[in-house]
């Protein structure tokens, strides 16, 4: 894939970029390795001060940074500005908590003294997606840098300007040259970096095939990986739920970021007694969304990030319809420049078809009718993914059953699945492994060293 900024709302190519040459890449790897040797010895106080400065830059420049995101990948501007703010919050969280999370832990044993000591691993490669072009990177970079690692970013090829801007923010915040470098490279250059002995570990947020590839190459090298992959999150609604609130949240949970979020609610599983009421209100909520220019503050749904994503989505909807699904609203590409697709709702989906449980990356919702909670949980779990899950109920017994029975990295009761710097984030099954954020995230790329003194 060419490295280029192409405005998805217009199709206009804004700028194209050359991939790094072998010599340039080698210089960056060398700098990362050298920088790590000094950066690892900096104090938490020093890192923290720089991280707080990065938070300030993100906040002060959120309007311009938001515009950059919107122009490169099409997310509505309000969400883009909120993304810059959220990046500031993760910088602040780790600036304030990293030292506590990585403090030595005394463990009583038969030794005179024994404890756990945390040390950085080295340069970590981060392969990142375009959908939250700042957030995905900062939720890796903030803990990695606070732990004393250095970062190498291979961002998605359609968001090069975001990738460059992120490196600039880190440098302007005062981090040393080489602490965080953007590598403008295609995915074909990733293998050589993973096999380079100077690179200690890798994290990938993206699709399942990309995750398999990176994990298998890193596995051959016995290098640690964290994988944050796709999802087909269920959103379950039971009769005791506050229906209006559930519907309002359902619309938002499906369409946030133009429907291109790993933790978007994708399968809506509704108990039969409230199914018709839910479906009617949900369809009307989806129809009411404003589609249009993502730079307009009143826009709810902008374009999909690339023509390929638009075509894939359209093909998925067609497959569902061909196998008997009913179209309740939408189902069309918009007849205008840019990668626009109507908010769409399908029901009566054949549960034996692949499309019923694959990831749908766009504003397309599938509704399923179930008789009871057991059927709801069983359908929710009938996917190879296990990222997030939301369940709406006001019955304490049902709540407990959902928390225990849903196969997912997180369960949200009466709320929308979302990430929060204070809580761990990640998936199970084909949604990946490892965790980001909170104490768990910063412990992924450290040597958990046991110290025993007799
Ligand atoms: P993608 O095609 O897998 O791309 C993600 C990144 O991986 C890009 O930088 C891409 O580079 C690179 N890449 C692709 N194939 C690769 C390979 N074989 N080896 C090494 N690198 C490779 O995914 P996407 O379309 O950008 O993002 C959408 C996917 O990400 C969805 O499945 C979504 O659910 C998932 N996602 C997951 C999370 C989470 O936290 N679990 C968050 C956001 C998104 P190029 O751009 O150069 O191809």
Task: Tell me what the structure shows.
This protein is of the alpha/beta class and 454 residues long. The chain folds into two domains: 3-229 and 431-453, Aldehyde Dehydrogenase, Chain A, domain 1; 233-413, 3-Layer(aba) Sandwich (Aldehyde Dehydrogenase, Chain A, domain 2), CATH 3.40.309. It is 41% helix and 20% strand. It has 14 helices and 20 strands. The protein has helices spanning 22-39, 44-60, 62-73, 77-101, 135-147, 160-172, 190-194, 208-220, 243-255, 272-287, 307-322, 373-380, 396-405, 438-442; strands at 3-6, 13-17, 105-106, 113-120, 123-127, 150-154, 180-182, 201-205, 224-228, 233-237, 265-271, 326-329, 344-347, 364-370, 385-386, 388-392, 410-413, 428-429, 432-433, 446-453. A seven-stranded mixed beta sheet has the order 12-13-14-11-10-16-17, sandwiched between helices. α8 (208-220) links the parallel β8 and β9 (224-228). α2 runs antiparallel to α4 and α2 runs antiparallel to α5. It starts with a strand and ends with a strand. It binds NADP nicotinamide-adenine-dinucleotide phosphate (NAP). NADP nicotinamide-adenine-dinucleotide phosphate binds at residues 1, 127-131, 136, 154-157, 186-187, 190, 205-207, 210, 213-214, 228-231, 262, 359, 361, 387, 427, 431-432.
């Amino acid at each position: 894939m060419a490295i280029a900024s192409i405005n998805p709302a217009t199709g206009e190519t804004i700028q194209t970029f050359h991939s790094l040459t072998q010599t340039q890449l080698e210089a960056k790897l060398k700098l990362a390795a050298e920088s790590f040797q000094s950066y690892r010895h900096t104090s938490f106080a020093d890192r923290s001060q720089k991280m707080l400065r990065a938070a300030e830059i993100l906040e002060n420049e959120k309007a311009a940074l938001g515009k950059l995101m919107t122009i490169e990948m099409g997310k509505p501007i309000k969400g883009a500005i909120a993304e810059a703010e959220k990046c500031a919050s993760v910088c602040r969280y780790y600036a304030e908590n990293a030292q506590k999370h990585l403090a030595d832990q005394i463990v009583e044993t038969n030794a005179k003294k024994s404890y756990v000591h945390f040390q950085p691993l080295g340069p970590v490669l981060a392969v990142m997606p375009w959908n939250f072009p700042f957030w995905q990177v900062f939720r890796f970079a903030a803990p990695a840098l606070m732990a004393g690692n250095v970062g190498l970013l291979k961002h998605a090829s359609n968001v090069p300007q975001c990738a460059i801007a992120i490196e600039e923010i880190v440098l302007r915040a005062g981090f040393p040259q080489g602490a965080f470098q953007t590598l403008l490279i295609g995915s074909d250059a990733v293998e050589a970096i993973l096999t380079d002995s100077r690179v200690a570990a890798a994290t990938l947020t993206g699709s399942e095939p990309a995750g398999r590839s990176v994990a298998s190459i890193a596995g051959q090298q016995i290098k640690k990986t964290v994988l944050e992959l796709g999802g087909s999150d269920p959103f379950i609604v039971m009769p005791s739920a506050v229906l209006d609130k559930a519907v309002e949240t359902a619309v938002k949970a499906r369409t946030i970021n133009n429907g291109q979020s790993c933790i978007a609610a994708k399968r809506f599983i509704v108990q039969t007694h409230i199914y018709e009421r839910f479906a009617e209100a949900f369809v009307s909520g989806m129809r009411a969304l404003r589609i249009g220019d993502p730079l307009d503050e009143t826009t709810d749904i902008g374009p999909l990030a690339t023509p390929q994503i638009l075509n894939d989505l359209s093909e998925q909807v067609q497959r569902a319809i061909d196998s008997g699904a009913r179209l309740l609203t939408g189902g069309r590409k918009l007849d205008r420049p840019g990668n626009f697709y109507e908010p769409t709702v399908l029901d009566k989906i054949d549960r034996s078809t692949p499309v019923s449980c694959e990831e749908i990356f766009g504003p397309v919702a599938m509704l399923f009718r179930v008789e009871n909670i057991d059927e709801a949980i069983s359908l929710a779990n009938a996917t190879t993914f296990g990222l997030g899950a939301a369940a709406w109920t006001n019955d304490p017994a049902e709540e407990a059953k959902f928390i225990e029975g849903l196969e997912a990295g997180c369960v949200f009761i009466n709320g929308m699945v979302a990430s929060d710097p204070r809580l761990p984030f990640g998936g199970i099954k084909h949604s990946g492994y490892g965790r980001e954020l909170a104490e768990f995230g910063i412990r992924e790329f450290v040597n958990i060293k046991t110290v025993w003194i007799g």
